[in-house]
């Protein structure tokens, strides 16, 4: 395995119990680790906890007990932020802000180059929409903008929750290409019921499987 020691394991979850409501844990004594390189598809039935896993890795949702470590850092610690990217299913955009301004603003927050973000957006097919306010974007174009905003700059781990949903052919191709590039140097957790044919998936993990297996080569 190449890379720095912190990248050997992208996400390490040990004896995790967590959830939203007292007495109703989504995870109970759950452990898994994902390798520091490559794309792992995280699958599982509706309600099995895939998005909850993303929330725990984002540090937003705190474990009741056990640990969630991302790129060698506690997911809840501010130092983890620079190493991970999380793209939730629902775009969180400012309705009156243009696509261009979203990208500039998000780039500044991530310490990334705005010009590179604008170029990526054009490659996804957003070139004609850069001056449009978010409220005027179609569902797919909002998702493209959100995807680029959530994956700016350098990172060790990207957790993408159903990122292909709503994308056209150009968007799917571009995302699949980018995921391959990221997978060379980082870990990509692809939360998806089905990965599109364009995507390269190195391993799959079934959440909610009775024996909670470790990620396996697919
Ligand atoms: N904000 C919340 N408050 C309370 N319960 C929640 C919340 N979000 C999710 N849950 C519950 O947590 C459990 C896991 O939900 P989660 O969204 O993580 O599943 P999922 O595997 O992503 O599902 P899907 O495939 O439908 O997207 C479900 O029982 C769900 O109802």
From TrEMBL:
Domain ABC transporter intervals: 11-217
Keyword match Nucleotide-binding: yes
Protein name: ATP-binding cassette, subfamily A (ABC1), member 10
Domain of life of the native organism: Bacteria
Pfam families associated with the record: ABC_tran
One of the record's GO molecular function terms: ATP hydrolysis activity
Alphabetical UniProt keywords: ATP-binding, Nucleotide-binding, Transport
Database matches in Gene3D superfamilies: P-loop containing nucleotide triphosphate hydrolases
Organism of derivation: Glycomyces harbinensis
């Amino acid at each position: 395995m190449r890379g720095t020691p912190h990248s050997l394991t992208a996400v390490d979850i040990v004896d995790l119990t967590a959830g939203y409501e007292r007495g109703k844990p989504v995870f109970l004594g759950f452990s898994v680790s994902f390798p520091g390189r490559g794309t792992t598809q995280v699958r599982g039935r509706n309600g099995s906890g895939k998005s909850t896993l993303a929330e725990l890795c984002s540090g937003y949702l705190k474990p009741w007990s056990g640990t969630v470590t991302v790129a060698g850092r506690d997911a809840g610690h501010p130092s983890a932020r620079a190493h991970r990217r999380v793209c939730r299913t629902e775009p969180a955009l400012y309705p009156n802000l243009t696509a261009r301004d979203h990208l500039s603003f998000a780039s500044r927050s991530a310490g990334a180059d705005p010009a590179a973000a604008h170029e990526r957006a054009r490659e996804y097919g957003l070139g004609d929409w850069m001056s449009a306010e978010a409220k005027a974007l179609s569902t797919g174009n909002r998702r493209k903008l959100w995807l680029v905003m959530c994956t700016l700059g350098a990172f060790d781990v990207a957790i993408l929750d159903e990122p292909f949903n709503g994308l056209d052919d150009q968007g799917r191709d571009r995302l699949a290409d980018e995921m391959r590039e990221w997978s060379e140097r980082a870990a990509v957790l692809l939360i998806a019921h089905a990965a599109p044919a364009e995507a390269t998936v190195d391993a799959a993990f079934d959440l909610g499987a009775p024996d909670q297996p470790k990620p396996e080569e697919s």
